[in-house]
Amino acid sequence: MGIVLWICAVLLGGCASQTAVDKQPWSVAAAAHLRAQLDRDREVVAVDEGLLTRFYLKRDDRPAWCGPTGPKSQADALLLMLQQAADDGLTPADYALGRIEAELARWRRAGAKPGLAAMMRFDALLTRAFLAYGGHLQRGRVDPRAIHPQWQAPFPKADMAGLLQTALDLGQVAEALAGLRPPQRGYRALRQALQDYRGIAALGGWPAVEQGGGEPLVARLRAEGDLATGEGAAVDLRAGIARFQERHGLEPTGALNEVTLAELNIPVAARVAAIALNMERWRWLPHDPGTRYILVRIADFELDAVAAGETVLNMRVIVGKPYWRTPVFSARLTHLVFNPFWYIPRSIAVADILPIVRRDPGYFARRNVVVTQGSGVQQASVDPDTVDWAGQTAVNFAYAFTQAPGADNPLGKIKFHFPNPYHVYLHDTPHDELFNERVRAFSHGCIRLERPLDLAAFALAREGNWPRGRIASAVASNINREVSLTRPLPVYLLYWTTWVDEQDRIHFRRDDYDADAQLLQLVGSQGRGWHYAKP
Known about the structure:
single chain, 535 residues, alpha+beta, 3 domains, 8-stranded mixed barrel, 4-stranded antiparallel β-sheet, 40% helix, globular
């Protein structure tokens, strides 16, 4: 018993001793100075002031980065990470990098005796830098809802204050920040591309190309790897131009036409900025490797189904026409409909179908379209032969068209519904031939799927007994049936203008949606150091 009491006394004494250390005059004075410094440097590094205050309150206002002799080793670890901020397309000046470098250098000099107030101001500045940089890495500099109001945050904001405290306790500030980067291969590939294109810019960029081509064209194509380099490398200009065209969404003819020439002469600075802007869009997506979601890449006319951070299903899609764009937003897939009815939107009924039925009264019977009038309990079927379609206009049109399930139904055999104010959804299509087109912008905004059964299998994989055979049987039955998801899937519709494919080739697209320009304007209003020349 005596030994047990002795051990308890030692433990209690240790606790009392630690408390005594915390209450030493330096700690007390440091806490008082720290409280006075928290509202400083708001204009230097902007963070959530409440988060900053809560972080220090949980520490009883004890300094996080500095001790009696000056900054601790984790301050140097933070500095090293801030020096890499540009590699993520971010602006180091937004985290006071220059000032932090100078202050650490000053206090690392032999014989330096920093004043307590200045040291505590520096401590708060380091905390601001960590919180700001970490937040930008984890969820982006820009709230996507500022541009796309219907964007739903894919995850709750990380507890940056808790993360910082744990990182300091474990001495792993660098590891904690690195872990906040998007884990997807697409982000990592763009991060490498950013370094590569900055390297091209540092060497003076690429030469201007004129219609005649010549040596400038050879140098230009070699700059991005579309032509082989090195002594004795064969020069196949036509093949090199075709590779360039394919990477830029152009018809790969191998001919130096005006459109190709314009793309070739876009300056490298614009490409660098576009890569950084598209890295920002990656930060809007889930970082949790356990998250399953569907991603529609509008500019690339592709869809990815993602699980455990990897693309497990990829397919071609058809998106909105240039004048009827697919909107950028996110929502949750709540249910699937096998053999859906097509409730034809009024705009399509008036603009597209009404001119047809004026010429062809038999359209409704052939397409299995039902005409109704009224709504709710007042809705009633109407014999189309009794309607004067020639007298119907956009102003007086008072009918609704509904197409029953069948081979000609534009929604095909499966519809994927994720509620949104745009009435956009994913669906099958009877017109598979359009997937062979390079530019697949043919819809009124909805997304048509190349492989709807595969996407249905992905969506229903965690919804009980839905093997592939049962899905195929439901489709073949021609019976309208709705299947709700107990675990709704996030769906993200994003407009990327730059990405890296599975063969590590970087692709660029024209900013037809003006998406980069909008994002740049918002980023530019919130920070410094972004340079972009719109093509």
